[in-house]
Amino acid sequence: MTQTQHNLQSVQAETPEGTAPAGPTTGPLTAEELQLSARNHSMPLEAMRRDVTPPGLHYVLTHFDIPDIDATSWHLLIGGAVERSLELSMAALHKDPAITVPVTLECAGNGRSLLSPRPISQPWVLEAVGTAYWTGVPLAYLLGKAGVLPSAREVVFTGADAGIQGGVRQRYARSLPIREAMRADVVLAYSMNGHELPPQHGYPLRLVVPGWYGMTSVKWLESIEVVTAPFTGFQQHVAYRYQDSADDAGTPVSRIRVRSLMVPPGIPDFLTRNRTLAAGPVLLQGRAWSGEGAVTGVEIGIDGAWLPAQLEKPLGGFAWRKWTLPWVAEPGEHVLSCRATDATGATQPLEQNWNYQGMANNMVQQVRVTVA
Amino acid sequence: MTQTQHNLQSVQAETPEGTAPAGPTTGPLTAEELQLSARNHSMPLEAMRRDVTPPGLHYVLTHFDIPDIDATSWHLLIGGAVERSLELSMAALHKDPAITVPVTLECAGNGRSLLSPRPISQPWVLEAVGTAYWTGVPLAYLLGKAGVLPSAREVVFTGADAGIQGGVRQRYARSLPIREAMRADVVLAYSMNGHELPPQHGYPLRLVVPGWYGMTSVKWLESIEVVTAPFTGFQQHVAYRYQDSADDAGTPVSRIRVRSLMVPPGIPDFLTRNRTLAAGPVLLQGRAWSGEGAVTGVEIGIDGAWLPAQLEKPLGGFAWRKWTLPWVAEPGEHVLSCRATDATGATQPLEQNWNYQGMANNMVQQVRVTVA
Questions:
Q1: What residue in A sits closest to B239 (Cα-Cα)?
Q2: Partner B, chain A 21-60, Cβ-Cβ below 8 Å
Q3: I want to staple B228 with a disulfide (CB 3.0 to 4.6 A). Which of A43, A195, B97, B151 is the partner?
C-alpha cells in the first residue's frame, strides 16, 4: 500500500491562500471539512440531561489555534474612545465585583452540514451548543471605569488567536454595538461552571454575550477598543453574515434563533446512531432556547402529530429550558421531533431556511426510533 | 427549499440493524462517519505543548451514549473465579490505597480516515490521543482482596454503556489476561488530572491500562469478572482486531504502536489548516509514545532529510515524551515530519500499514508549511 495522506494533501494544494473557499456544494464531505470536524467538537445530545454542560461536552469552535497564555504576564487593554485607557492584570480583574450568568451558547454554523447545498466550513450536524455558568466582571463596569466618550458606537474585542481566513491574516476580532455592550449580563469571564476557564474556552479571560451566537463571545481576550465607526474586521464584515449568494453583502448574524433538541431515547447503534427502545412508557426530554425572547412553548412531533411538552422552570437569562413529555411507545418505526416557540412568536421551521454561509439553521430535529 | 435531513436519513434507512457495516471504501466520507466525528472528539495538535491534556482537549470515543450515573447508589461488583465476591461503593474505594499514573491513551482507530481504502467507522484524522494523570485504586489490590482462583485466565470489565454494534446488543465489555490485570500500574481511576472524572471519561470509575490502546480502558465500570476461559464478547472477538479481510479471524489489538506527532508551527488557515510561518529560527516540538517500550529516538524530517530531535525527560510510565528540534525556516514550501523509534526497535512507517478495521495506523505525520 502506498502513502495515502493524499486526500488531505491534494485538497490543500488546490486551495491557495488568498482565494475564497469553494461555494456551497451538493457533493460529498471534503477532507478539509473532516479536519475541522476532528478539531472542533459538539455536545453529545445525551448531555442535555444536565442543566449545565461540563468542558469536553460543551461545544467548542476554534478558528485558529488555541493560544497557550501565561496568565501571570497577560494583561487586558481597554482603550479607544474612552476617557482613560486601562491595562488590567488577572489579579486586578479578580478584585472587581463579579457576576455569574447561566448562558446557552450555540455556534452560528450549527446544523450547517444538513443544508443542501452545503456551505463548506465547519460541518456541524445538530449539536454545536452547550450551557454553562460563566463568572467574571461585568463588561459595563469596566467600560464605566474607562469612561466611554459620547462619540462611541461600538466596542471591538480582540483575542490572542491568530491565523488566516479568506486570505486575510488576522487576530480573531468581533464588535458589539454600545447598547449591547452595556447590558448588565455581558461578562468578561474567568470562570466556567465554578472552575478556571479551560484552555479551549478562552483561558484566562473571555467575553460572554448571552443571547448572541457564539462568535460574539471572543475567547482569549486581549484588548477591548471603543470605536466611533462600525468595525469592518473580517469576522464582522465578511464572515457571520446572512447572505443569499457570494455577491450579497448580507446582514450580520447576531442573536440565537429559537431552537430545541431532544435527548434521543433508547439505545443507539454505534455506527448509524439509530435508536432502539422497548415498548411502553418513556419520558421524552430535551432543551429549548432562544436569544430573542423567552421560550414559551415546545411541541413534540410523534409521527407528525404535535403534542405540547411540559416546560420546566427556566435556569434564567438566556440559558436553555428543559422540556419533557411522557410517551407510550408502541412497537414499530417512529419519527420524533421537537419544535420550540419564543416570546417573539418565532417558531422553528420544518424546512431549511438556507443561506450562503449556512448560518443559524434552526430546522426541526428528527429522531428515528425502532420500538421493539 | 425542502427538508434536507435526507442525507442522514437515507443512509440510516439503508443500513438495517443486524448487518455488518459496509467494508472499506475509496468513496467519500459518509453521513454516518460525519455523525460519529461530531459526537467524538480528538485532541487539537497544539495541546501537545502541555505535558497533560485537560478534559475537552483529551480525545474521547464513546461507542454508545454517555451514561448518567448517580455515584451515591453506584456499586462496583467483583466476582467470578474469586474466593469472595465484592460489592464496593465509591466511598469504600476512596478508603483503599490510591496510586496516580501518567498515561498516554490513544484510540486504536486513530489515523483511520487517512487509510485507503478507508474502513467505515469513527473517521479519526491524526489526533485521537491525550495524556492525563489518573488516580485510583490499583486493580491488583482489589483482585488480591477478592482472591483470584488458580483457574483464572482473564478478567472481564463491563461498563454501564449499552447499545447495538454489528447487530449485537451489548454493554461495552473487554477483557485483559490475568498477567496484565496484575500489573502494578493498572488502575481503577476515579480522578483525572486531580479532579473528579468528567462524565465523558467514565464517571464515577473507569479502568486505565497504561500502554494499551484506549478500547481496553473500560469507562463507566460496573463489574469485574474473573473468568476461566477466553472472553468472546463483541468488542474482544469481533471489534478491535487486526484483520486482512472480513473473513480473516485476525489477531487482537493490544498495545499502542510507537508514534509521534508535531505541534504544527506558525499560524493556520481556518479551512485548510495550511501553516504559514515567518522565516528564521523556530523550535519544532511534539510528543512521542509507545506502549511496547520506551521511546528511544525521534527523527524530524525536513523536506525528506532526517535529523535527530532532542528528547526531554520522560513523564514516566507509558506517558508521551516531549521532543524538540531548533529549525531555521527558509522561505518557500516545506514538508515537516516526525518519526519515533522505541526500545523494541520498532519505528513508525512512512507508508500505511493497512488492515480491514483501520487499527493502529501509526504512519508518519506530514505537516506542510509556507515560510514567507
A1: A270
A2: 21, 27-29, 32, 34-39, 41-42, 44, 46-47, 49-50, 54-58, 60
A3: B151
Residue B239 near residue B112, CB atoms below 8 Å: no
Which of B252, B277, B308 is the last residue in one of the domains? B252
Q: How many angstroms from the chain centroid is the CA of residue B272? A: 25
The answer to whether residues A264 and A244 belong to one domain is no
Whole-number Å distance between alpha carbons of A76 and A93: 9
pLDDT tens readout for residues B352-362: 999 999 999 99
| pLDDT tens-digit series, residues B291-344 | 999 999 999 999 999 999 999 999 999 999 999 999 999 999 999 999 999 999
Residue B5 has pLDDT above 80, yes or no: no
> Residue B241's closest CA among B108, B337, B87?
B108
Q: Which residues, other chains included, contact B104 with Cβ-Cβ below 8 Å and sequence gap of 6+? A: B129, B130, B131, B256, B287, B289, B318, B319, B320
**Rg, Å, chain B Cα set:** 21
User: Rg of chain A over CA atoms, in angstroms?
Assistant: 21
Q: Tell which A residues from 174 to 203 touch B, by Cβ distance under 8 Å.
A: 198-201
Is pLDDT of B2 > 80? no
Residue with cell 443569499: A244
Enter the ipTM. 0.93
The whole-angstrom separation of Cα A263 and Cα A265 is 6
**Residues B73 and B123 reside in one and the same domain:** yes
User: In this structure, is residue A10 part of a structural domain?
Assistant: no
B268: nearest CA in chain A? A163
Q: What H or E segment, with its residue span, contains residue B93?
A: helix B90-95
Q: Which three cell numbers stand for residue B7?
A: 442525507
Any residues with CB less than 8 A from the CB of B211 and at least 6 apart, and which? Answer: B255, B256, B291, B292, B318
Q: Which one of B14, B17, B41, B220 makes the best mutation probe of the A interface by having the most chain A beta carbons within 10 Å?
A: B41
pLDDT at B22: 74
- The 3-state DSSP class for residue A93 equals helix
The reply to whether A49 falls in a domain is yes
The nearest alpha carbon in chain A to B333 belongs to A13
Retrieve residue A244's grid coordinates: 443569499
The number of domains in chain B is 2
Structure letter (DSSP) for residue A33: H
Identify the band that residue A20 occupies on the pLDDT scale cut at 50, 70 and 90: low
CB contact under 8 A, A121 and B352: no
B215 shares a domain with B123: yes
> Are B116 and B182 found together in one domain?
yes
Cα atoms found within 13 Å of the Cα of residue B302, Cβ hemisphere only: 15
Q: Residue B87 gets which letter from DSSP?
A: E
Question: Residue A64: which domain range?
Answer: 17-252
**Chain centre to alpha carbon of residue A277:** 31
φ, ψ dihedrals at A159, nearest 5°: -95, 175
Cβ–Cβ gap A271/B15 under 8 Å: yes
The per-residue pLDDT of chain B, averaged, comes to 94
List, as one string, the DSSP characters of B8-77.
HHHHHHTS-TTSPPP--BSSPBPHHHHHHHHHSB---GGGGGSSSPPTTTS-B--SSPPP---TTT-EEE
